[in-house]
Amino acid sequence: MAKSKNATIFYCQNCGFESSKWMGQCPGCKEWNTFVEEVVRATSSKNIGKSVAGLGKAIPTSLAEVTIQEEDKIETGIAELDRVLGGGIVQGSLTLVGGDPGIGKSTLLLQTCRMLAGKGQKVLYISGEESQVQIKMRADRIGTFKKEMLLLCETNLDIIAEVIHRENPKIVVIDSIQTMYNENVSAAPGSVSQVRESTGTLLQLAKGLNVAIFIVGHVTKEGTVAGPRVLEHMVDTVLYFEGDRHASYRILRGVKNRFGSTNEIGVFEMREEGLVEVQNPSQYMLEGRPTDASGSVVACSLEGSRPLLLEIQALVCQTNFGIPRRQTTGTDFNRVNLLMAVLEKRCGIQLAGCDAYVNLTGGMKIVEPAIDLGIVLAIVSSFKNVTLSPKLMAFGEVGLSGEVRSVNMAAQRVAEAEKLGFEICVVPKVCVKSIKTTGNMKVIGVSNIQEAIDLVC
């Protein structure tokens, strides 16, 4: 019997795992009921042999003979975005922007297009979800646009490729990748095959025409970009737009960047006229902080090269049940339990019969160990009902023996606190030598948590 030219393959919508048959649980990501059936065209081995034989000889090049031409990055005019991108947009790059619905992905890219068009850069905004009138209504809230800003409402990639070749823009925005479709793929838009093939086509356009392309990707309920995991491996940069859409703040985080650091963040505030940069996130995060309440401590975390001051709140009270309740917001739950165990063992503070709630204000999610000392002091302050000085800032990693270990870039953290008017910094003792202050800042080094508790509580 002759084999069919088309084959049926099952793809996992979460990670892109391929299987010849349907399975309830994906072996790759262990998710349930994520397999979908798609028909793919089978390629004959004879045709492959003919195509390979018809190609010219590929000649490898010595690495020592390869020359690099340094190209200036295109600054977007939005400093927070440039920081996350590593200084600006690289020509020929493919950038994926993901985030929850309504978080502001399209607004951010539309503002970026406006700034670039104002500098004379030719920009092409391609939308597969909104009409021209809808985009115009949203654009009027942001401001006026120059004639270099071009708009196209299309989902067919063949037509999009033809327009990009004809117009030759510097920047292209695809909103969104889940709405694009390739006629050569017999699958619905948004499916695993369509998303993968569409991204591959855009990647060829970006590299072949030296055009910077931004693609918007929807996210799943777990917070990852919808589609196969290979999608993030294909692009040059992956940016995630985080935050609660009902709150005013937004955080742009780079999780992959071939042209810069992946630890930088950009902070924005959503207003009626669009997204506004937050130039001093530390001051923004500390607004409205109580000055006469126990369980409140300011700590310093490092996001890339930017020190970020944030308030840690703790509430410790006697439990009404047999098993005490623990809850954390913005930090690791298991880390807080570990620090409470260290307090019981090393300092004799009995927390076994207490409920404990730890919260990082401002909606930040921090897992850096440098905030350990701040969490410890906040818990003890609430347990003893002692109010700490509002001019106090603390940071340091806490070990299982109760020691306070060093953290990197301690001098930059203290300088940020000094700039915001803090007067006392409790830091690891081994970091004191590297810290130099110019004002009234008092730096106190501690070697263990008992010294820090005796000092401030």
Summarize this entry quickly.
By secondary structure, this protein is α/β, with parallel strands linked by helices. The chain is built from twelve helices and 21 strands. Strand 1 and strand 2 form a beta hairpin.
Question: Can you describe this structure?
Answer:
The chain is of the alpha/beta class and 457 residues long. It has helices spanning 45-54, 79-85, 105-118, 132-142, 157-167, 192-209, 230-234, 281-285, 333-347, 372-384, 410-419, 449-456, and strands at residues 6-12, 18-19, 35-41, 94-99, 123-127, 149-153, 171-175, 212-218, 237-242, 249-257, 265-271, 274-277, 296-303, 306-318, 326-329, 354-360, 392-394, 397-398, 404-405, 424-428, 442-446. A 9-stranded mixed sheet has the order 6-5-7-8-4-9-10-11-12. Strands 15-16-14-13-17-20-21 form a 7-stranded mixed sheet. Strand 15 (326-329), helix 9 and strand 16 (354-360) form a beta-alpha-beta unit. The radius of gyration is 27 Å and the shape is globular. The model is unreliable at 47-52 (pLDDT under 50).
